[in-house]
């Protein structure tokens, strides 16, 4: 379909739904954008800038019709940690621009090199553990603003030290505004349904803003958001000092990874609701474009946000045009509403963040993962604790390494089953678990793993152990249906097993070898040493040229 | 069997074979021990010390009756590189003692923590690539001694720079001795068989030693081994400076890994010849004991050597007592023969090392690995080049990371097959590869991989893609025989697939679930959300309550 035709089809069709969705989303996003910019340690208006041009860039390059891109809480937390690495002389805003630019370039490079599959390194335990930890860290970082305390920090030790350093001070009127906002938000969430529930934060903001103005809260010492500088969106280069770029690179790498993976998870979850699919590479391109746009328009690193996306989805978005409209509407709204926002108490903004992020907390996965696999449950917990007490980098590092270690351990110790025939069928199962019958001279073995370097050294050992228990064996048939691949180490192990059995006067046959596996063996010229037979089914392998004197094992 | 009884049984039985083996091995090992000590950049007599007490310790703690423990070429090369990290003020000999002590402690810790399985990280491509690279590096390091050049180094760039710095000098009489030795060794290898071939190096050494004495080679400027200091084996603590231990720890870690894995490979290869098995943990204990003994008796890090072990095996060793006898005999021989060895030209010693290590080179695995799996062939080559041009640490690092990356890639992109029935059987195979028949309303799918975090995100996608091609489907039966495990991420993916199919009005059934996998699913309470059926065989799953109107796909 040509662009013009596409535009015409769009004008006839879903634009109305998109416009409604955009209008709803744009007003809701203004306070959220301010709040996440403050969370990242940046001036509040940066959040507005990051919600304009990046949305247009994503709409142009991305693929999901529902993904709402903009400042998100977890990335904001990571920006706050990462900008600390900037050399002296650079402001946090400048560092944030470089982080956005670097993340964008890393994502574009990953898309070009087809590294989108690296997202798979974030296992569910790592991702959930990380998101929970980050959410708690975000909540912690908002406590001082809610309490009117001068303390700051998002990791537990830093926050406690800072609070102790300031003599555990707090400010009653500030806390009053904050608690009132929390109460109203929770009430709204409970009493209202559907879109009204989503509008509740806006209503609460307007309400508290009015009260703050009426009681002249500034005079009571309540910190307010304050007047935003006049907004004038403009394009400009981020700082180009190599030393600055180098210092921020590790942080940018983590931000790119988390921004991509968390956006992908959101896009996939929403696509799945309609039986649709997501193109991971296009998502990567879309996010790269959005972050590049942020870097050039005085913004901060952005990602797909679950709350923004759910808003778009629930408000009836049909295409990525709704993001474009939202950006335009929001630009207009921000220009006109910004002066009023100056009266908003900071503790109210902290309250909206607290309620928003804490409502997403899920503890059930910890219990489920623990029940399903102790090690994975522990990994999830460890990642959470590291985010809270050490740093995002340490948590993700341990998480990825831990996941890989568990995978290696899994392939290293394969389950081995002596299999026999389920009577009256051609189906073979583990003799220890099912009522089956075996042939005394033919040993059917199933090794439940691909033959890989992690287990190659134990293959001959495992078979030898079974042979010691069944001295009458004259032929061994390996059922290869669980063997999904054989690497070069596995090939050597198979050759050694074949040789070891041949020395003992035993023949090694294989059955149910998968097509791709057999292709590779043939290409490597295995017929030069392999003297056994390859049978299509294990039943054929067991009964080939054999008297069928089945016995119980 | 009690110790005394065991000793009596031994006195009646295999002691004669062991004594013969020990006598042969002990004389052969003296020059080799000197040579490897020099290769490690240590005084020659250190090689003798490392061949005495460590053998006794291994005999006490190890398990293999054939493994010959002592100084080996590859470990000597690693010691030469590692001792460079010692702080100023410590001799290479002192650093070598600390390396031996640290390797021993690391091995003992690994045995205690049951980390012997970490040996699996060394895949065949990495191990072969490393051994070939190390062998070439050893050969390179011997060239200056053979040529009578003052150059030194084992990595190519360092050696070339050093040779250029010395003006490419060489010394004709020294080279003459060296080339004569090489020629005689190659000739002996070609003309002699069996044990005589193994004795050839000793004969060549005695011969050239005699000539060097007769022509007074020292006067010609030929570097000789020189008088060894009087040997007096003694026990003493290695230096205990924490700074020294910390500086050498990375080197010791690599030495422990390589010493263990290369010893294990030798022990397993020899055990396999007799259908016996090796206990990896006891090997680890044995090597730990041997290295600790080396550290306390003025030795150097030791490992199981293929040439020593093959000698013991061929000479008819029956038990680890032969190692004990060899140590005793060698101690006696070294005391009496040492003065004569002073006349041995160093170029002859270099020649014996060159011929010994180069004869073990195998190029065929590179070709085989390349043919079988490009990536693994490239990895093997890259590891070799890194050993030669950069360092042992870089090569092993890249090798282990590369192997893991290939494993992740393998599990990340599972092969998926639509399966149909082989007519007249209950056996199901890929419709693209076999003449099979299918049921139009029941889709049988086989996903050839465990459900793991690396592929969890693509499971629903893959099934959805198949459904798009077969719109008439009303039930999906996943054949789970290739699924050897499901981690927590895989469990979530299965739940999401189930949910996504349910939304589309499709039922998800599973067949041929393995016992251990089903146990885990049940323990996690999957019956709370799983509404399909689990069938024993895929045939039962396909035909359950179904009109059997088989058609060709």
UniProtKB/TrEMBL annotation, chains A, B:
Question: For this UniProt entry, what is the primary localization, expressed as one broad class?
Answer: membrane
Q: Where in the cell is it found?
A: Membrane
Taxonomic superkingdom = Bacteria
InterPro entries per record? SLC26A/SulP_dom, SLC26A/SulP_fam, STAS_dom, STAS_dom_sf
Q: Which UniProt keywords apply?
A: Membrane, Transmembrane, Transmembrane helix
List the membrane topology term(s).
Multi-pass membrane protein
Q: Does the keyword field hold NAD?
A: no
- One Pfam entry for this protein is STAS
Keyword match Electron transport: no
* Membrane spanning stretches: 20-40, 96-115, 168-188, 195-215, 243-271, 283-303, 323-341, 348-366, 378-408
Q: Where is the signal peptide?
A: none
Q: Which residues form the STAS domain?
A: 432-525
UniProt name for this protein: SulP family inorganic anion transporter
Organism of provenance: Roseateles flavus
């Amino acid at each position: 379909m040509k662009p013009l035709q596409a535009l015409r089809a769009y004008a006839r069709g879903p634009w109305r739904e998109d416009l409604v969705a955009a209008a709803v989303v744009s007003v809701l996003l203004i306070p959220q954008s301010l709040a996440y910019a403050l969370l990242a340690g940046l001036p509040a208006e940066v959040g507005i800038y990051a919600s304009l041009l990046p949305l247009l860039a994503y709409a142009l390059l991305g693929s999901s019709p529902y993904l709402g891109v903009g400042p998100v809480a977890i990335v904001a937390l990571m920006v706050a940690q990462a900008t600390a690495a900037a050399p002296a002389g650079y402001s946090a805003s400048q560092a944030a621009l470089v982080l956005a630019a670097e993340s964008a370039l890393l994502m574009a490079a990953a898309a070009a090199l087809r590294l989108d599959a690296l997202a798979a390194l974030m296992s569910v335990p790592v991702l959930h553990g990380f998101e929970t930890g980050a959410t708690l860290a975000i909540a912690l970082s908002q406590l001082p603003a809610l309490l009117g305390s001068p303390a700051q920090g998002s990791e537990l030790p830093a926050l406690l030290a800072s609070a102790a350093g300031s003599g555990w001070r707090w400010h009653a009127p500030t806390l009053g505004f904050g608690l009132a906002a929390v109460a109203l938000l929770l009430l709204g969430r409970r009493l209202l349904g559907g879109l009204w529930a989503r509008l509740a934060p806006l209503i609460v903001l307007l309400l508290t803003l009015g009260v703050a103005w009426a009681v002249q809260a500034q005079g009571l010492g309540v910190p307010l958001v304050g007047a935003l500088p006049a907004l004038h969106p403009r394009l400009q280069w981020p700082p180009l000092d190599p030393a600055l770029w180098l210092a921020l690179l590790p942080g940018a790498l983590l931000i790119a990874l988390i921004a991509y993976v968390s956006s992908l998870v959101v896009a996939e979850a929403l696509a799945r609701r309609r039986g649709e699919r997501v193109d991971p590479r296009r998502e990567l391109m879309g996010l790269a474009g959005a972050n590049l746009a942020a870097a050039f328009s005085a913004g901060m690193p952005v990602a797909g946000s679950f709350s923004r996306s759910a808003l778009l989805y629930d408000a009836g978005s049909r295409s990525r045009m709704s993001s474009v409209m939202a950006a335009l509407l929001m630009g207009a709204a921000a220009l006109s509403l910004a002066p009023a926002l100056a009266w908003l108490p900071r503790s109210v903004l902290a309250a909206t963040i607290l309620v928003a992020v804490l409502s997403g907390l899920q503890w059930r996965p910890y219990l489920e993962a623990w029940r399903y696999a102790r090690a994975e449950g522990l990994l999830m917990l460890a990642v959470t604790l590291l985010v809270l007490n050490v740093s995002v980098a340490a948590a993700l590092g341990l998480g990825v390494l831990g996941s890989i270690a568990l995978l290696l351990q899994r392939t290293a110790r394969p389950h081995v089953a002596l299999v026999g025939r389920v009577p009256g069928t051609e189906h073979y199962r583990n003799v220890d678990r099912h009522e089956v019958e075996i042939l005394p001279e033919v040993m059917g073995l199933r090794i439940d793993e691909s033959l890989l370097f992690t287990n190659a050294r134990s293959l001959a050992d495992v078979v030898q152990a079974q042979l010691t228990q069944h001295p009458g064996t004259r032929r061994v048939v390996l059922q290869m249906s669980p063997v999904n691949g054989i690497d070069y180490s596995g090939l050597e192990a198979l050759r050694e097993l074949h040789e070891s059995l041949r020395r003992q006067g035993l023949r090694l046959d294989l059955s149910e070898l998968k097509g791709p596996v057999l292709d590779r063996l043939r290409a490597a010229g295995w017929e030069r040493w392999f003297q056994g037979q390859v049978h299509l089914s294990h039943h054929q392998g067991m009964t080939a040229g054999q008297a069928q004197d089945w016995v119980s094992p």
